[in-house]
Design brief:
Two copies of one chain form a homodimer.
Chain A: H1 10-33, H2 36-43, H3 47-53, H4 57-66, H5 70-84, H6 90-105, H7 108-119, H8 125-152, H9 162-183, H10 192-210
Helix pairs in contact in A: 1-2, 1-4, 1-7, 5-6, 5-8, 6-9, 6-10, 8-9, 9-10
Chain A binds a DNA duplex (30 and 30 nucleotides) through α1 and α3.
Amino acid sequence: MISAMEQTGRTATKRRAIQVAATEVFLQHGYLGASMDEVAAKAGVSKQTVYKQFENKERLFADIVLGTNDQLAVNLAAAYAETLEGATDAREALRALAFRLLESLTADHVLQLRRLVIAEADRFPEVCGAWFTRGFEKSLETLGQALAGLTGRGLLRELDDPTLVAYQFAGLVMYKPMNRAMFAGTRVRPEPGELDRIADSAVTVFLSSYGADR
Amino acid sequence: MISAMEQTGRTATKRRAIQVAATEVFLQHGYLGASMDEVAAKAGVSKQTVYKQFENKERLFADIVLGTNDQLAVNLAAAYAETLEGATDAREALRALAFRLLESLTADHVLQLRRLVIAEADRFPEVCGAWFTRGFEKSLETLGQALAGLTGRGLLRELDDPTLVAYQFAGLVMYKPMNRAMFAGTRVRPEPGELDRIADSAVTVFLSSYGADR
DNA sequence: AGAAAACTAGACTGTCCAGTATGATTTCGG
DNA sequence: CCGAAATCATACTGGACAGTCTAGTTTTCT
């Protein structure tokens, strides 16, 4: 399981091809809109092989959803590290972080995955709930830790509940652009100037509560 | 069109029954999962009548989505009025507003509609985009106006961009509970104590930037 | 090499569903 | 009360698709 990516046998290779293809198909068409024939074709594999690897469509879906966290988690961890760890100026660091978050989370495939999970939240409550806990919530807890780290360097004041503070930062920065991206389709893009205003203002509000200089 | 709800003829009555039934079916099963037979059965109407009133499934969907804003808009307007208009204490007023927002927006049918719109954002970009502009964005602009009204009564300081401030308030209050409600299925409910902490802290952060007393 | 396991192409089953057609019945305006 | 329009129940068409089956081919392991 840990070494899923390291397997090189024919079976493992084909399994991975199926996962890649299925991810593409599910993200593009949704659960009901996805066809197993298309998955097989896109994976360059026969339908039998798909059903040998994954009992049925539901299992394949679960596998895809739960397997698609890693990239984003790594990406976000990098964003935290690069923007916060060496920082000396709180405002600049938080601004940079805000942009990295916006960039990471409005990437097309991230939005599509989130749409998929939301759409199927009632059909697959366990899978979607697990995705949320292990992906979404975990990312914000990690962000909380990263923010708490700024306290140690005198850039923020003491935080009682770093996770809550992380949600507040995320909410200030992303509530508007994220909702637009989710609701208004992948096509609509905000003008760059707007993201600047949002990030600037969010950081100002954030620092007026949590900045080290009162 | 304006008087759709006032029509009493047989045709108009049946048309409304179809809309009600279709709303239920689409919200429950999603676009692809919804069946026109179920809509007809639930409306107590023959399939022919459905197709006489609505050209096809797509049109029915569009009609449903675009017709489902009014209740929530009215609800939110009431929330703004009741919590802000007579207020004398900014903290108390904003706390009350926060709870009203959470209550209104985590209602089951609201969540289901939002899931539906998000899920179909790529399939029906015009319809979902229109829903977003006329429903979501409009609500936040209205909230901005309501908040700006607090400035006049000395409860908040001057707001350069009331809409942006409204998004920040909404983000502070709802980013966490709304995401959980959207992703983790309708079943998961936060403990009441958590909403208290979120609302309290959000209002504190908000006021430390926008409160009239510095 | 040779047997076992994996894979392939393609046909097939059963089901579901959007949308149409039909012929009988009900409603309603004049 | 009569005729037009609306509605009803029901059956049908055509297509999509999940999942199975078969018979032949390729890979892998020993």
